[in-house]
Write a structure and sequence with these properties.
It is built from 3 helices and 7 strands.
């Protein structure tokens, strides 16, 4: 009987250790994913500011959708055409508030407040916006599948 209790105690300890390692491993993977998403966002901002079409082609997923602050919905092809033609030119993109990143396995949702100056689809833009980005991690890394800008009232 004493041996049975000892074996049971050892089994419980091993299971607890295994579950603890699993939780620690998940936290580590989530932290690593958050770092990767932060890097993807920086690469995205750089590509937009430099009008780097080849980088944007990789960053935007094939089914990417952009919802502008005015409510226009643009596809990847439409955004690329705007960048190539010069209809979309951004002079600056500045984050005003802390970036929030929520990772869900192979996807992530980010929100932040940004100040943008430039033009989208030939229309001048300048102001404060709430930005939501949706990222998915595939075999090639993190890709942006959707983003939306919401204009914020002037303060």
């Amino acid at each position: 009987m004493k041996r049975g209790i000892a074996y049971l105690a050892i089994a419980i300890a091993l299971l607890a250790s295994a579950f603890g390692q699993s939780a620690n491993q998940q936290d580590s993977e989530k932290s690593n994913s958050e770092k990767e998403v932060r890097e993807a966002i920086e690469n995205y901002k750089t590509a937009l500011l430099r009008r780097d079409v080849s980088a944007l082609e990789k960053i935007w997923a094939d089914d990417y959708v952009f919802v502008s602050a005015s409510g226009d919905v643009l596809t990847k092809e439409q955004r690329l055409a705007n960048v190539k033609s010069g209809a979309t030119v951004l002079d600056s993109i500045n984050e005003q508030e802390n970036l929030t990143i929520r990772v869900y396995q192979n996807s992530a949702v980010t929100t932040s407040r940004v100040t943008i100056k430039g033009q989208y689809s030939g229309q001048a833009v300048s102001g404060h916006y709430r930005s939501t980005l949706v990222w998915v991690k595939g075999s090639g890394g993190w890709q942006l599948v959707s983003n939306q800008l919401t204009a914020l009232p002037a303060k």
